[in-house]
Amino acid sequence: MLVVSVGVLLVAESLTFKQISLLKESADRVSHSLEVEMSINTLYSYYALMQAEELENQLDAVSVSDTSWEDQKEVTFTSFKILENLVKDNPMQLAKLKEIGQLQDSLYDALTALARSVPDSSQTMETRTRLVARITRNLESIREAKDDMLEEEHNLFTERKLLLDMRADRAPLFTLLLALFALSIFLLAFARIYRNKQRVKRSEEFLQSILSNTNNIVNYYEPVYDEQGTVTDFRIIFANECNKTYLGVDPDKIIGKRVTEVFSFLRLNGELDELRRSFNDQETVTLERQIAVHDKKVWFRTTIVPHADGILITGSNTTRERDDEEKLRDLNERLRNRNEELIRTEAFLEGVLRSTKNVIMSFEPLWDHAGSIEDFRLIFINQSIDGIVDPGAGELVGEKVSKISPFIYETELFGHMVHCYKKNTPVDFESSYTRDGVEYWVQGTAIKWHQIITVNLSDITKQVKAEKGLISRNLQLKRSNEELESFNRVASHDLQEPLRKIQLFISRFVEKENANFSDKGEEYLSKVSKAAERMQSLIVNLLAYSKIDKSHENFEDVNLNTTLGKVEEELALQIIEKKAKIEKASLPVIRGVPFQMEQLFANLISNALKYSNPRVPTRISVQVETIARRQIKEDFSKPSRKYHKITVADNGIGFNPENSGKIFEVFQRLHQKNEYSGTGIGLAICKKIVENHMGYIGATGDPGKGATFFVYLPVRE
């Protein structure tokens, strides 16, 4: 019996030890799976961080030497080796890790190439865009490989957890039975069994510690059935501490409660149906969604795995990963926009440089041993130089200025460029040079930007020649004006003197010989006297017309009400003779020459009196309104924003509208001189006065009904 008891005890001890060893092995494997999963996530986060830092450096235009992502390579290498050591016993995971290693090398190459491609280098924006796309593809491939490894490791974790739970469930009962059986045989076996039980407890505590300290939410739910045996809800059987960390719920207080009572959001987005489907179909379901926790949005990736009589829920917080992805997308978008903007700017500048007729050149200085600028090297020139010098622009770049443009040293242009470079101030200049025996003039500006001198040259040869021609014409005009002044003196003195003598002798002849005249003689003498008067009036009007100039130096404030009042006084006899009535509005104050304004209104009023209709009472209306420049239909220069429109209308004999322009020409008359007196210069004087005041005069007529003259004068600012 003793031998049997000892044998049974030995068998019991052997079985118990084996059960504990298997349980510890299962716990170690579960811990190993969690550690592998954490290492995979850590390695991928390093890759994402390296890409984000390099893209941010590119946006901030960091130099090649300042590549902060290089600092992450050592940490990434260490993390890669740790993960490689963890999965060395899993050929499938090891193969995936080898694939990630190859992708890692490609990612390093792309990041290095991108870091060395600065915005102002010769590398095109298209190459930078391809590098960014290559980095994104590498990272996406790494992520896919990472997801495959996580899925494989999660499956191992599930299998190992099931095995652990099964062994954990059986171990206490098996141990207890063996302990009772052994106790009945030999009391000594109790001590050993107790020690083994303590080891199992420590293993369970170790597993609980792993579940409590993991960064993932780990919950276990069992189904709740209705009367028909349909799963309507789940009850929380286990919840680790991450529930409190991420969701703000105490795991000890939610155990035993229904999941819809604790996590009410499961009913809103159909996740409860996914829990039921996973349990009923006994298949793994993965969910990715965003939830609100304490007014803060958090992203979770949840894996639902059927386990025993319930489902095992593993949730990982992917908010940071999502934020990193969003940041990467934002950085990629900003980089793409920046590249597009640079391309548009480059195209715009290229269009400007191609479309301008100016020659635009950029130079870098060349220094002698004494530290003085001895020459400049051409580093850019636009196509406007083609046709001016040979060879063309493309062959000139890189050459010295002393070789391609000797005239720069023949003129003061070289000194201007040196001054601009040393003083860092823009220099404007004009210069001439001779090519093929022809003199050319250029006007330009030299500007320093960084260590480059940019010169903008425009050919002003035509302008210079035009200015010289203008000076010549001005001299001719001055001589003409002097001749006109001489004519004015002759007209005002030499021409009028004979007329005055003729009129004097006619008057004396009439006084002394009037009784001896025949009727025909009196008629002839009267015609001679009237002809002399018309000649004198013509000379006076011509003098008045020639004295109206374009000078505005004697402009002053002129009250047109006062001006019109003076005109009425001067024409009082004619107004009374014609029994005319003048209706006038309140006129404005303008800037002008007082005596010219008086002459303007005098000519217009006397013109209305002269051509009055004898069959109707004479009516003259003087009105005014202020209108905007855009409302004026007449074509003339309009420097002012607003104008006074002054109209002088009468009910006289009028005129044919087709003659509205002709009446303002010198010596133009619509009637015979025996019908109406006048020289044909009065309205021409009006036109010249109005134009001298930067205005416009026009007229409309209706035969037998009257005429209307309208004058536009600028509003006083």
Poorly predicted runs of 5 or more residues: 62-67
Radius of gyration, CA atoms, in whole angstroms: 54 Å
What is the fold-level CATH name, i.e. the topology of the largest domain? Four Helix Bundle (Hemerythrin (Met), subunit A)
Strand order, main sheet: write it out: 2-1-5-4-3
**Mean pLDDT over the full residue set:** 78
Query: From the helix content, strand content and strand pairing, which structural class follows?
Result: alpha+beta
- Highest-level CATH class of the largest domain: Mainly Alpha
Keywords:
Beta-Lactamase; single chain; alpha+beta; 5 domains; 717 residues; 5-stranded antiparallel sheet; Four Helix Bundle (Hemerythrin (Met), subunit A)
Notes on the structure:
Residues 62-67 have low confidence and may be disordered. Helices cover 56% and strands 20% of the residues. The chain has helices spanning 2-59, 71-86, 91-116, 125-185, 188-213, 242-247, 251-254, 259-262, 271-281, 319-355, 393-396, 401-404, 407-410, 413-423, 461-513, 519-547, 560-570, 572-578, 594-610, 682-692; strands at 216-225, 231-239, 285-293, 296-307, 310-317, 359-367, 373-381, 427-435, 438-449, 452-459, 556-559, 581-584, 589-592, 619-628, 642-650, 696-702, 706-714. The strands form 4 sheets. Strands 2-1-5-4-3 form a 5-stranded antiparallel beta sheet, sandwiched between helices. It has a 5-stranded antiparallel beta sheet with strand order 7-6-10-9-8, sandwiched between helices. The chain has a 5-stranded mixed beta sheet with strand order 12-14-15-17-16. A hairpin with a 5-residue loop joins β6 and β7. The protein has 5 domains: 2-202, Four Helix Bundle (Hemerythrin (Met), subunit A) (Up-down Bundle), CATH 1.20.120; 215-317, PAS domain (Beta-Lactamase, 2-Layer Sandwich), CATH 3.30.450.20; 356-459, Beta-Lactamase; 465-535, no CATH class; 552-714, 2-Layer Sandwich (Heat Shock Protein 90), CATH 3.30.565. The N and C termini lie far apart (134 Å). It contains 20 helices and 17 strands. By secondary structure, it is α+β, with helices and mostly antiparallel strands. The protein is elongated, with a radius of gyration of 54 Å. The longest helix has 61 residues, at 125-185.
